[in-house]
Each structure stands twice: as C-alpha cells, then as structure tokens.
Design goal:
The chain contains 14 helices and 22 strands. The chain is α/β, with parallel strands linked by helices. Helix 1 packs parallel to helix 9 and helix 3 (about 45-65) crosses helix 7 (about 180-190). The longest helix has 18 residues, at about 45-65. The structure holds flavin-adenine dinucleotide and nicotinamide-adenine-dinucleotide. Flavin-adenine dinucleotide (FAD) binds near residues 11, 51, 304 and 311. Flavin-adenine dinucleotide binds near residues 15, 51, 142 and 309. It comes from Kribbella sancticallisti. This is NAD(P)/FAD-dependent oxidoreductase. Its cofactor is FAD.
Length: about 450
Amino acid sequence: MAEQVDVVVIGLGVGGEEAAGRLAEAGLSVVGADPRLVGGECPYWGCIPSKMMIRAANLIAETRRVDGMAGISTIEPDWSPVAKRIREEATDNWNDQVAVDRLVKKGVSFIRERAVITGPGRVQVGDREYEASRGIVVATGTVPVIPPIDGLAGTPYWTNKEAIEAETLPASLIVLGGGAIGLELTQVFARFGVQVTVVEGLDRILAMEEPESSDLARAALEHDGVTFRTGVHATNVSHDGSGFTLALDDGSTVSGEKLLVATGRRVDTKALGLDLVGIDPAARSIAVDEHVRAADGVWAVGDVTGVGAFTHNAMYQANIAVLDILGAEDAPTASYHAMPRVTFTDPEIGAVGLTEKQARDAGIDVRTGITQIPAATRGWIHKAGNEGFIKLVVDNDRGVVVGATSAGPTGGEVLSALAVAVHAAVPVHSLRQMIYAYPTFHRAIGSAIQSL
Ligand SMILES: Cc1cc2nc3c(=O)[nH]c(=O)nc-3n(C[C@H](O)[C@H](O)[C@H](O)COP(=O)(O)OP(=O)(O)OC[C@H]3O[C@@H](n4cnc5c(N)ncnc54)[C@H](O)[C@@H]3O)c2cc1C
Ligand SMILES: NC(=O)c1ccc[n+]([C@@H]2O[C@H](COP(=O)([O-])OP(=O)(O)OC[C@H]3O[C@@H](n4cnc5c(N)ncnc54)[C@H](O)[C@@H]3O)[C@@H](O)[C@H]2O)c1
C-alpha cells in the first residue's frame, strides 16, 4: 500500500536539497531520497573542496610572485594541510550528518536509498512506495563520462572523486580532458610540484569558451610547468602496477603515475522509470519548460536538465520548481540568456551569455570589443600575475551586450557587472556613460566598451 505524501524529491544534491527543504518549510509533506551524501557532488567532491585546493595552490603562486616585487620568498609546498582541511572543514571526512540534520529539521523525511519512479505520481524508495499528490522532483545530477578507450576500464584511474580525496600527490599525472574540472585540478597539482600532462581531444582547451580564454589558460598553465597535448585521442590505456601509459592516435605515448579522467559528465537516468511518466530515459538530459516541468506532475532541476552543470543553476531551477509546485502567484520563469560561469584557474576565467561564435551562429549582427588587463592601470600596478582581458559581444541591432568574458585576477568577481549588463540588457550607450572606479580591475569594462 503506497504512503500518501505531497512531494517526493529524488536526489539530494544541491538542487534536490534546496527544493526538498523549501517545500517542507512551506508546510508540504516531503520525502527526500538519496543513497549517497546529502548535498551531492558540490560540497563533497566538487566546488567546495576543489576551491579549497585552488586557494592553497594560489597562495603558492602568489608567494612565488614576491621576488622582484617585495623581497625574496622561498616556499616548500606541502599537500598535507590541504588534505587535512578538505577532511576536517569541507567534508567532515565525507560525513553528511550536519546536512541530514538540517534537512530533517526543516521537516523533510529523509531516506538514504535510491528512488525509482513506478508510475505517474508514484515512487519506490527502498522497500517503500509513495504516492506524491503534488509532484515528483528529479534532481539526480550527473556521473563522470568514462570514454570507451581500450584498456581504460580495468585500470585504477581517478575521477574527480579520487582527485579530491587524494592524501598524497603523485610525482606525475596525466589529465584526460581539458575542460573546467581538468584544468582547475591540473593547475592545483602542478603548483604542488606534480608533473602534469593534459591530453585534450579538441584542438584547444576550454573549448566551450572564447578562443582568447583557451590561449590565456594554456599560457598560464604552461607557466606552471604543465604540458599540453591537444587535438589527439588516446587509443589505448595500460597500467603496469606503478604507472599509466596512454597510446595516442598520432603514434606517440604519454606516461604518468596517475591518470585523471575529466572528459565531461553524463546523466544516469536509464533505470529511473522515466518512461512511465512519458520522459525519454535515453535522452542526453531531461528537457524542461520555463517552469522546469518535465512532464505532468514531474519537475527536474540541476545538472540532470542539461542546461548548465553549475551549482548556481541547480539552485536557480530549484527555486523555480518550488514556487511552481506551491502555486505561487508570481512564480518566476526560467531564462538562461545570462548564465554565468567561472573557471577558477589563475587567472580566473569568468564568462556570461553567448560567446562570439555562439552569437554569430545565432544570426546576430555581432560587434566585439576587447581590452587587455595588463594595459589597464590596475593591471599595470598589479604586475606579476596580471594576465587577462575583458571581451564584449554586442548585438548591434539591439545595442546590448549579449555575452562577455572577464579573465584575470578576480576575473570571476569582475564578471558580476557584466552579468548584470547581459541579464538586464543594459544598453551599451548607458554602459558607456557609467563611472567606473579608479583604479579597479572592473574599470577595464569601460575600456572594453570604448574599444567597441
Ligand atoms: C570537481 C568539480 C568542481 C566543480 N566546481 C564547481 C564550481 O566551482 N561552481 C559550480 O557552480 N559548479 C561546480 N561544479 C558542478 C556542481 O558540482 C554541480 O553542478 C552540482 O553539484 C549539481 O547539483 P545537482 O543537485 O544537480 O546534482 P548532484 O550534486 O550531482 O546531486 C545529485 C544527487 O542525486 C543522487 N541520485 C542519483 N540517482 C538517484 C536515485 N535514483 N535516487 C536517489 N538519489 C539519486 C546522487 O547520489 C547525488 O547525491 C563542480 C563539479 C565538479 C565535479
Ligand atoms: N568552476 C566551475 O563552475 C566548474 C568546475 C568544474 C566543473 N564544472 C562543471 O562540471 C562539468 C564537467 O566538467 P568536465 O571538465 O568534466 O567537462 P567539460 O565538458 O567541461 O570538459 C571535458 C573536456 O574533455 C574533452 N574530452 C572528451 N572526451 C575526450 C577524450 N576521449 N580524450 C580527450 N579529451 C576528451 C572534451 O573535448 C572537453 O574539452 C562542466 O561542464 C562544468 O559545468 C564547473
């Protein structure tokens, strides 16, 4: 006999935790199911521990910049305080009791089990079945893509999980995939003395961003001692007990003590019962409308929607789902035209909205402007580690910025002004008249506008 509840939330990562907690606080009876840790990827194997690692690696880099500017510095990098901080401060040694208690205090019935949809409004969680009168929220996130390369499956390769959990560092590391995960972790490990080789199948790293961003990231990481192999694919992987060898399709090989696979993420919804509610279980992601509805009585939020694999997107969509489920009069609708993203390399590479190519492909009459951070007063003052640029992509017909990149020291913070401009479609002539404080990094936005 199915138990009656208002809502079942499947998956309690960032998106599901937010949706379940808010719905319970609003007075609904909510069951939240997750076989793993409440909070999901971001606090335990993603954003938070990786940014702690980046903070430590950036301290090393800043210390190395002292020479010639503030004296002489020496530094002996040591991974142990980083591994300790990740255990003690970030993840409670991968224990989610605090998060579980917080969720239960909000009124959510938490079950540490995998959930499966068994029909419209019906969900099986472990050995219990629920009938959800108000709806089901699917927030099951993604899992790492493991490419079908000969030999790889049988080897002890790392994904982000093992990389974040590392207590000691290898002497050398091969990173397969030059996207956000690969590059952030590459720079961390390189700054701690690991010999890193990045193997990227496309002809440039960070390929979803502007070509200028790819060039900047590559130059910065090469400065950290990283070797890049772009435009090549691994055809075979072998592990001899002490290290990995990748055979590449140009006939060469790459060797390293460890191998990190960072070749993207995929949804894992095949066994979720989605077909029973009219959703294609084999699709690359769960398609959602502007209320993040996926089917009658089903909402989907976060990475599983394929809109943008970012914590801020999971939170954004969770809010939309919550207000729609509650029938709020002024429930917002989703708009992704100003999706911000920051790759937390040093220099940070922030971007919002469309790249120049995406804008041209969309048929927009594009004008671009670019300014270099070292040429801006603050960049010149900053000197060591000042590399970066601001690039604007303007829709000529509408006279608004539809995309922007802010790369450099605090590039992710400088992005905020550009995100407002794209989000609110602030006219370019208005941005041109603004006063930009002197001598800030964000004042370079004014120079980029002048260069249009
Ligand atoms: C190394 C790394 C660094 C990152 N850094 C950033 C960053 O700096 N900024 C940023 O915005 N994003 C970052 N991300 C991405 C961010 O972690 C994700 O976008 C975010 O976690 C997505 O949240 P989610 O709720 O959609 O899914 P997840 O956090 O993946 O949670 C999904 C949950 O669903 C559960 N689940 C799956 N199937 C079932 C089922 N059948 N029943 C019950 N539960 C199920 C899983 O166990 C999991 O706990 C990073 C990711 C990684 C890997
Ligand atoms: N700072 C952040 O916000 C942050 C940080 C980390 C991750 N994330 C999120 O996590 C998602 C996943 O990150 P990711 O870096 O794994 O994926 P990604 O899609 O960003 O990059 C994967 C890279 O691997 C390459 N690749 C794929 N198959 C390959 C193969 N067989 N050989 C060589 N290269 C191959 C791709 O061309 C691509 O460049 C990102 O899209 C991002 O949304 C965000």
